[in-house]
Design a protein that fits this description.
Blueprint (H helix, E strand, L loop, with lengths): L1 H27 L5 H13 L1 H10 L1 H7 L3 H18 L11 H10 L3 H4 L7 H10 L11 H7 L4 H8 L5
Helix pairs in contact: 1-2, 1-3
Organism: Sinorhizobium terangae
Keywords: Membrane, Transmembrane, Transmembrane helix
Protein name: DUF4405 domain-containing protein
Length: 166
């Protein structure tokens, strides 16, 4: 079994890396759909196993890299880039695909403003939110504020706003 795992680690790294590379580029340029995003996330996660097997198989060679300038520099630059991308910069980031950014713009408005877009009155929208577990909604509150005060997240809010969603 060990021989099989060692023999297939590098080929699986190559195959899964190519899938991750191509799907990542497509997602960056907003080509594809939700299936592509899910595929990218899951198969990139699966990539961890063959990577770990590859490192295990080649541990002796890896130790030659560790502590030397090229590996140290590569790890520091990679960590620095990750931190820079994740560091809050004071601006609100919409993040994610355009439909998520659009949704966040919508739920920043009040129930009274959004109700007509959903074919409802503000009273019926408030009643719907109450029926779906949102506490103390008011027509003049931003929808995201209603969700936050109810201990719910954006996804739960959007689901509650959709027709026939529990």
């Amino acid at each position: 079994m060990k021989v099989i795992l060692q023999r297939y680690a590098t080929p699986f790294i190559t195959g899964l890396f190519l899938v991750s590379l191509i799907s990542g580029i497509a997602l960056f340029f907003h080509v594809g759909n939700g299936v592509l995003n899910e595929m990218h996330e899951w198969l990139s996660l699966v990539l961890v196993l063959p990577f770990a097997l590859h490192v295990w198989k080649n541990w002796r060679s890896m130790t030659h890299y560790l502590g030397r300038l090229p590996m140290t520099l590569a790890l520091l630059v990679s960590a620095g880039a990750a931190i820079a991308m994740a560091w809050p910069n004071g601006e609100s980031r919409s993040g994610g695909p355009p439909q998520i950014a659009f949704s966040r713009q919508i739920i920043a408005h009040t129930a009274s403003e959004i109700a007509p877009l959903l074919g409802q009155t503000s009273e019926s929208l408030i009643a719907t939110l109450k029926a779906r577990g949102f506490a103390a909604p008011a027509p003049d509150m931003a929808l995201i504020e209603i969700a936050t005060k109810s201990g719910k997240n954006e996804s739960q809010l959007v689901r509650a706003l959709l027709p026939s969603q529990p």
